[in-house]
């Protein structure tokens, strides 16, 4: 007999897992399908961020939401704190400084090693009562039924079907859900790659995140606990393989040359993780009885550190809309989801894409304009305040779980 579920979430990555937790908290039953086997790594193992393929900047809104989902206490000790952000460009005079105090808050955001966040979500999921996990199970096809979708899934024991009234595509950039429900996607190749690792810095400027742009792309140094910093170094695609094979000394010398000496000498790099950068944008985020969240809906340039933050708000908005309704796949509900996500999605997309274009392009004619824009932003408090609010994840109609609460 075919299994049935109200809501089938395909993909148990950071966003799918967050959605499952939010639905569970709202008392809604759901099935979470994940192609990979479940591993619940010890949270402490990645505390310094040394063995992480990314260190995620979590906007203040995301920290609030993870607190509401009872995930944050598992992360707090492993998280760096951002009270100030400094953005500059090599060879140009302007710089932008944002401070939590300017926005009337104590922190702008936090930095968590990706593996630690994944482990914390897994730990919380293991305690969920409403969510059924189906792991090591890959979606291979979707077909329509009278009530919704029939998902054909492949496991080690063979293939079987699950019927759902709503299918959620949380299955990442190359989403099969997106293709199967008939939503096209547009890809853009930034012709860049990036490397992530941790480094030690000779000088500390506590709780400050730095991003420095150059013709080849940005380099960022993010605060982590234990005196380490998360390094993100972007390189042109044609240099990717050469940089990947550099020894540690040559790699650190390149990072130093690109970042400069603001934090003194960089040293002791941890394990290095390479990534290729592309943008993937779904033409729509809903189809009949189907919805996309996270990277399946939009995969962004990591320059703005917005991908998970935006995906989490996708997930929380959806959970909020579903919480008290009978039919989670009703067309009015999905229409409302699309309307509510539009300003946030469009704003973040324009920000991330525009930032990468403006900051990375080697166009001398843009240099004075860029410097002036940075200078203006640095000197005009209301502008700085507006940018800080958006950077903290408060844009459009944010889901309630992301809002600041009183003490
Ligand atoms: C270097 C780097 C740095 C970044 N830094 C930041 C940052 O600072 N802040 C920020 O907010 N974001 C950042 N991001 C972006 C962020 O990591 C992503 O947006 C986020 O992880 C996307 O999560 P997801 O769950 O949507 O997708 P994914 O992580 O891709 O998860 C998809 C899941 O679906 C599963 N799956 C796929 N297909 C199937 C199938 N057919 N059946 C079953 N399961 C399936 C996969 O196994 C996977 O577990 C960064 C990204 C990179 C690359």
CATH superfamily assignment?
A: FAD/NAD(P)-binding domain
The strand count comes to 20
What is the tally of helical segments?
11
The description of the largest β-sheet is:
9 strands, mixed
Whole-angstrom Rg: 21 Å
Overall average pLDDT = 88
Notes on the structure:
- It is a single chain.
- Strands 5, 6, 12, 13, 14, 15, 16, 17 and 20 form a 9-stranded mixed sheet that branches. Strands 1, 2, 8, 9, 10, 11, 18 and 19 form an 8-stranded mixed sheet that branches.
- With 407 residues, this protein is α+β, with helices and mostly antiparallel strands.
- The longest helix is centred in the last third of the chain and has 30 residues.
- It has 11 helices and 20 strands.
- The chain has one domain: FAD/NAD(P)-binding domain.
- Flavin-adenine dinucleotide (FAD) binds next to helix 1, strand 3, strand 9, strand 12 and helix 8.
- The site of flavin-adenine dinucleotide has 32 residues, from helix 1, strand 3, strand 9, strand 12 and helix 8.
Quick overview of this protein structure:
This protein is an alpha+beta fold. The chain has 11 helices and 20 strands. It has helices at 14-25, 60-68, 72-75, 114-126, 176-180, 240-244, 248-259, 307-322, 331-360, 367-379, 381-391; strands at 3-10, 30-33, 55-59, 80-82, 84-89, 95-99, 109-113, 131-134, 138-144, 149-155, 158-169, 185-201, 208-214, 217-223, 228-236, 266-267, 273-282, 286-287, 290-292, 298-299.
